[in-house]
């Protein structure tokens, strides 16, 4: 189905926005699409919603769209939830596909499942949950697409894992010439390593074969500590206690006491695992309260302190056991804001564990000077990624996922840009990396030095896709 700008707006694909009328009649029907940042309204020649079901010829439909993009000399890009924040899923003046739906086939003997790239994690979790299984790795929120997750090579909070790609057995990709190529660590391995974390620049991912693990009931435990002790405590818990199955950390975010305290939350498999386990449940009333407190933090230092008090002092006594699947099934809507003058922007840094205290000190200097409101930081353990060409964790890292609220407008942008560049430069000095799916605020030389295989990535892109049909804003800004 091709969506005109009007039908996109009426149909409530929340990511589509109003914008300038078509500048040239030959582009009609033309859509303006955006991503979760709400800072990237971009005209596209066509926006095609492709909802796959088990019997669909998804490959044929994608082939057709790629062929017409090539014939018209346009860009082509797929997105699912479009929660990347720098136009990584948007082909300017090109053919934009929003891919959703798909099939899922479970192989109990291999402990794998084959899944359509447009499936979202909340759909995958429900299908696996019914059979007693759980995704090995996915992001902390369940709205995102499986194909996107491979393209950004996400990480999550199940332990002890590297990024998502380390749990991918194979993927099928439609290339620029329409050929369907299967790739894995042993078959077309060069393409596998490029497409993993390759932001769709090598082809359209249509399905993937992924590792799964048994679902389990997990019990939380909270330990409060000085941030200087965090890296050791975190790596020790995750690496030496086999009962720890999920883990994350938090740091206090009020400006005057930024990163003064850390919290380590580990989830262990309890001794009694009821059979069957309780079915995955939607998050309930407490989430509404948490969201209200979370949103109140913008402009209110007392709310940041109150949230820390709830998290560090109240949660440990009220948090109960939950299944792995319920913990992973967290919707992004839980963080939603109704304020249309501001937007939430994520940053993420991957820090060598032995430089974690230096990272804390860097943030203490840089972040309080910014106008952006710092809402949250979550810390994750990410094991080494030996495969992806654009690897952000070539060795094990502590990931710091940070959320800021910024004003929508030039001042908000300038402030965010300056803070991002400074943090990236500081993290570069610590031997760490920044994550690519967010705002495109790194300088090109920062990208090159933090991702040292950039030239190889760009040369391979030109080899596999000589007409450069697979392009998005990140290609233009960082790699073109
Ligand atoms: C609230 C929030 C929490 C997050 N938490 C985490 C986290 O815990 N861990 C983490 O690693 N990341 C996290 N992220 C980042 C997130 O993983 C990425 O933004 C991811 O891209 C979101 O998936 P999506 O479906 O929205 O991707 P999209 O933005 O739709 O696409 C991302 C990229 O993949 C490409 N792509 C998508 N599907 C295909 C396909 N089938 N074929 C070819 N190319 C394709 C797109 O063109 C684009 O380049 C978070 C983001 C947000 C907003």
Structure at a glance:
By secondary structure, the protein is α+β, with helices and mostly antiparallel strands. The chain has helices at residues 5-11, 58-72, 121-129, 146-152, 189-195, 227-240, 285-296, 301-318, 324-328, 356-366, 410-429, 444-450, 454-464, 473-479; strands at residues 2-3, 31-33, 42-44, 46-52, 76-79, 95-101, 104-107, 112-116, 133-135, 168-174, 180-184, 204-214, 217-225, 244-251, 262-269, 322-323, 342-351, 373-382, 397-407, 433-434.
CATH architecture verdict of the largest domain: 3-Layer(aba) Sandwich
CATH level 1 name of the largest domain: Alpha Beta
CATH topology of the largest domain: Vanillyl-alcohol Oxidase, Chain A, domain 3
- Helical percent range? 25-40%
Mean pLDDT: 92
Number of strands: 20
Defining key terms:
Uridine Diphospho-n-acetylenolpyruvylglucosamine Reductase, domain 3; binds flavin-adenine dinucleotide; 14 helices; 20 strands; eight-stranded antiparallel sheet; Vanillyl-alcohol Oxidase, Chain A, domain 3; 3 domains; six-stranded antiparallel sheet; alpha+beta; Uridine Diphospho-n-acetylenolpyruvylglucosamine Reductase, domain 2; 480 residues; globular; disordered N terminus
Describe what this molecule looks like in 3D.
By secondary structure, the chain is of the alpha+beta class. It has three domains: 99 residues, Uridine Diphospho-n-acetylenolpyruvylglucosamine Reductase, domain 2 (2-Layer Sandwich), CATH 3.30.43; 114 residues, Uridine Diphospho-n-acetylenolpyruvylglucosamine Reductase, domain 3, CATH 3.30.465.10; 233 residues, Vanillyl-alcohol Oxidase, Chain A, domain 3. The chain is 31% helix and 25% strand. The strands form four sheets. The protein has an eight-stranded antiparallel sheet, sandwiched between helices. A hairpin with a 4-residue loop joins strand 7 and strand 8. The two termini are 31 Å apart. The relative contact order is 0.13. The N terminus is likely disordered. Bound molecules: flavin-adenine dinucleotide (FAD). The site of flavin-adenine dinucleotide (FAD) has 35 residues, from strand 5, helix 4 and strand 12.
């Amino acid at each position: 189905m091709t969506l005109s700008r009007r039908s996109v707006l009426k149909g409530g694909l929340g990511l589509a926005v109003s914008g300038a009328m078509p500048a040239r009649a030959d582009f009609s029907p033309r859509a303006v699409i955006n991503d979760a940042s709400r800072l990237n309204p971009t005209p596209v020649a066509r926006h095609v919603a492709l909802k796959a079901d088990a019997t669909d010829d998804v490959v044929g439909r994608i082939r057709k769209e790629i062929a017409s993009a090539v014939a018209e000399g346009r860009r082509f890009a797929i997105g699912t939830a479009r929660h990347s924040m720098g136009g990584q899923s948007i082909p300017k003046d090109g053919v934009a596909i929003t891919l959703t739906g798909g099939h899922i086939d479970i192989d109990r003997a291999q402990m794998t499942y084959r899944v359509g790239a447009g499936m979202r994690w909340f759909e995958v979790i429900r299908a696996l949950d019914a059979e007693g299984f759980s995704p090995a790795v996915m992001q902390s929120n369940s709205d995102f697409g499986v194909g996107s997750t491979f393209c950004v090579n996400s990480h999550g909070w199940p332990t002890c894992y590297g990024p998502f790609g380390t749990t991918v057995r194979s993927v099928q990709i439609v290339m620029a010439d329409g050929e369907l190529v299967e790739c894995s660590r042993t078959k077309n391995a060069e393409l596998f390593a490029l497409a993993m974390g390759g932001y769709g620049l090598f082809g359209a991912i249509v399905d993937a074969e992924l590792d799964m693990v048994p679902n389990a009931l997990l019990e939380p435990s909270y330990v409060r500590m000085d941030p200087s002790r965090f890296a050791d405590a975190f790596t020790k818990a995750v690496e030496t206690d086999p009962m720890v199955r999920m883990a994350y950390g938090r740091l206090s975010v009020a400006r005057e006491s930024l990163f003064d305290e850390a919290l380590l939350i580990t989830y262990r498999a309890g001794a009694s695992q009821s059979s069957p386990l309780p079915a995955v449940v939607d998050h309930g009333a407490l989430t509404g309260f948490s969201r209200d407190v979370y949103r109140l933090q913008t402009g209110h230092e007392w709310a940041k302190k109150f949230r820390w008090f709830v998290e560090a002092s109240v949660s440990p006594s009220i948090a109960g056991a939950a299944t792995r699947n319920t913990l992973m099934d967290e919707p992004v809507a839980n963080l939603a804001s109704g304020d249309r003058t501001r937007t939430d922007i994520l940053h993420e840094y991957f820090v060598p564990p032995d430089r974690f205290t230096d990272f804390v000190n860097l943030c203490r200097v840089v972040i309080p000077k910014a106008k952006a409101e710092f809402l949250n930081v979550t810390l994750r353990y990410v094991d080494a990624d030996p495969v992806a060409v654009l690897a952000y964790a070539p060795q094990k890292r502590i990931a710091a996922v940070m959320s800021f609220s910024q004003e929508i407008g030039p001042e908000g942008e300038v402030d965010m840009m300056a803070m991002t560049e400074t943090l990236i430069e500081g993290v570069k000095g610590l031997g760490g990396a920044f994550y690519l799916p967010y705002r495109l605020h790194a300088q090109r030389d920062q990208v090159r030095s933090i991702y040292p295989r950039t030239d190889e990535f760009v040369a391979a892109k030109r080899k596999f896709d000589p007409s450069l049909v697979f392009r998005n804003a990140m290609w233009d800004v960082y790699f073109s």
